[in-house]
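> forwarded from #structure-qc
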């Protein structure tokens, strides 16, 4: 009798599960299809809007909507799956406690999208996997890289509107995985390498990574580099001393190890080079309050920046200008963005202004960043944005064109003259000591309109040209890719 009761209960539970699955998956009553929905843009604030799907007018709402209909509405356009990744049945597994299983299935599915270059389809999968299994560190790290690096235009310029989302994903990864160094390091790397300007944040995240017991020794060098680029040269030296001492102890314990000897010798060489640079660039003298006379940074070198921007075709701009520095290695940052771009800063933006992993960047805003390579004291670069209207919508009326150079991002042979803070650099027109705290940088900006960029209105039949006040035409002499490259390092130190 007791057995019969147990069997009866089990049958009832199974029946309830099947009924429950049917209700959850199929809903109650007639279910809408993907064609019963329409897409709308809803404005939340002056700077934020969202794309939502709602039932078309006249379409009756179901009593209870099933999972199949919901996924068809939001992701699959009638196919019953999220971009080929998460079906309603898999969603039921997740609801029943198989979150890690579903996350694994999804991430395996994402591989095929990476292989085929279908990058947009990977975004919702990344987000779902991290929500289903917050311990998936590889997904967080790969997701940051994918969002920050993979969305590019036809000329391989990154869509920098995605960087805040990449950083937000990294911060979320550190909160969900505080016991390991990996997401702290990956977030620091995004600041150090991709943003390549605000090194204080790179230092912050690398410091936290270095505190973790599983931090790889080979990656600890980057904290020293980040300190150096952040102008904290003494802290950079301190990290090098510690790494060298640890390497010397490891070599003393096992002198037969080639790796131990190589690591010690490499750090010794890096430490010696760092001390020489600190001396020659006048760092110790400046710290002691002594004049910089006789050091490589004195007198400051006039870089002589000037620029002209010509709109040669709709969405196609040519940047021409001068930079009075002969050694190869200068890359001047050029930025075009809306005058009212959200969270804008000179030559950039507040990259981590939000903690929301928003996979839909401001589609009505434009942010283009290019590096202008200087060769033989001048540059000439054509920037074609005509093939990427979604990345460069140019919906606003007015835009700003910015030019920026920071010695902290310069290669060592340029820093030997300019130093880390720009003590050895000046510019008669565009030296700036305010936009980057404690630094001497080159910065200027010009205004340009949408009609000029698109060659519309009065600019349809005449060529828009904007220039700095000191720009002088080169009398027909233009940039030639066959020009010889000058590597005259001593000339950089030969006064103004």
């Amino acid at each position: 009798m007791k057995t019969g009761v147990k069997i009866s209960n089990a049958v009832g539970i199974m029946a309830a599960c099947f009924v429950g699955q049917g209700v959850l998956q199929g809903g109650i009553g007639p279910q809408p299809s993907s064609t019963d929905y329409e897409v709308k843009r809803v404005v939340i604030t002056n700077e934020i809007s969202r794309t939502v799907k709602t039932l078309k007018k006249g379409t009756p709402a179901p009593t209870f909507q099933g999972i199949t209909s919901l996924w068809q509405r939001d992701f699959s356009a009638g196919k019953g799956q999220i971009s080929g990744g998460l079906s309603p049945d898999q969603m039921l597994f997740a609801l029943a406690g198989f979150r890690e299983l579903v996350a694994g299935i999804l991430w395996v599915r994402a591989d095929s999208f990476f292989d085929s270059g279908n990058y947009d389809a990977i975004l919702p999968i990344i987000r779902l996997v991290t929500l289903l299994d917050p311990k998936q560190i590889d997904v967080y790290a790969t997701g940051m890289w994918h969002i920050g690096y993979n969305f590019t235009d036809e000329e391989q310029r990154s869509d920098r509107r995605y960087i805040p989302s990449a950083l937000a994903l990294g911060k979320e990864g550190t909160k969900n995985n505080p016991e390991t160094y990996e997401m702290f390091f990956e977030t620091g790397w995004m600041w150090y390498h991709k943003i390549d300007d605000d090194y204080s944040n790179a230092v912050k995240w690398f410091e936290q990574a270095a505190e973790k017991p599983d931090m790889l020794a080979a990656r600890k060098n980057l904290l020293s580099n980040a300190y150096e680029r952040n102008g904290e040269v003494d802290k950079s030296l301190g990290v090098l001393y510690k790494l060298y001492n640890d390497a010397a102890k490891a070599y003393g314990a096992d002198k037969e190890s080639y790796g131990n000897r190589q690591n010690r010798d490499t750090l010794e060489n890096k430490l010696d080079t760092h001390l020489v640079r600190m001396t020659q660039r006048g760092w110790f003298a400046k710290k002691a309050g002594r004049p910089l006379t006789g050091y490589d940074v004195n007198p400051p070198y006039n870089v002589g920046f000037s620029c002209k921007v010509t709109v040669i075709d709709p969405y196609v701009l040519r940047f021409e200008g001068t930079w009075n520095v002969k050694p190869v290695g200068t890359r001047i940052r050029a930025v075009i963005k809306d005058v009212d771009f959200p969270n804008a800063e000179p030559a950039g933006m507040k990259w981590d202004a939000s903690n929301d992993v928003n996979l839909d960047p401001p589609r009505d805003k434009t942010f283009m960043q290019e590096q202008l390579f200087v060769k033989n004291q001048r540059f000439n670069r054509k920037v074609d944005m005509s093939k990427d209207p979604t990345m460069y919508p140019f919906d606003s009326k007015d835009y700003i064109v910015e030019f920026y150079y920071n010695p902290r991002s310069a290669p060592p042979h340029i820093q030997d003259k300019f130093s880390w803070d720009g003590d050895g650099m000046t510019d008669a027109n565009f030296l700036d000591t305010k936009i980057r705290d404690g630094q001497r940088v080159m910065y200027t900006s010009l205004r340009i309109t949408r009609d000029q960029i698109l060659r519309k209105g009065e600019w349809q039949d005449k060529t828009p040209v904007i220039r700095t006040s000191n720009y002088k035409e080169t009398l027909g002499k233009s940039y030639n890719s066959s020009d010889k490259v000058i590597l005259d390092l001593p000339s950089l130190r030969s006064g103004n």
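QC bot note: Residues 401 and 446 are 5 Å apart (CA to CA). The two ends are 104 Å apart (CA to CA).
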